[in-house]
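[Q] Does anyone have a clean structure-token version of this?
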Amino acid sequence: MEQRIIHLSGLVVDSRTLQPIDSVIISDENGNRLGATDKAGYYEVKIKNIDKGSIKFQIELKKDGFVSFRQRENWGDLKGDTRLVLYFGLKSSVSDVAGFSEFYSGKLNNGYKNVLEGFSEVKNKKSFENALKAAKENNENVFFNIAGMAFIVSDTGWIKLYSETDAISINGKKIVKANMLNNILKRSSIKKMTPVNGNNQYNFYIEAN
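[A] Here you go.
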């Protein structure tokens, strides 16, 4: 029977600070130790798959002071060995930022240099998500300026604006500048937000209660 090996590598970081975590134990679904992260948060493990058909596997990451993280995968019937870069963020026991996992869609070469290079995209994404989460706390604001960029935000999503003075149509009845929305709308009242192309009067449309 053909043995297919999954070469898995990546970084493990604190989900809030995005700083590397060393000595994180990585185990398979049977509790067998596959490896651990080094002082840079880097890991590289191999998972052997001998079953026919689709590739299924599960790994678990554990470290004292952090909430354990479990990743389940169910892929197609891939032939031969497979290489995958996967980043993990572990939730500290004193943090309110959830753990996460992110695949790297770039060049799939093992090695710390390649993995670190791919992490910049993940780091930017998670840094923004954390900043947005903090900005939304204890308010019902719709308009936000984060790191010099303007956004309109609902309870279910966000849209990046061209500028803080973009024209926003509310229910097709009123047009206001984006930076005035917090005086008019509550975030929880928004039902839909969408960009609008080809309209000379406004750039975005908000449907709200």
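[Q] Thanks! Anything notable?
[A] The longest strand covers residues 4-14.
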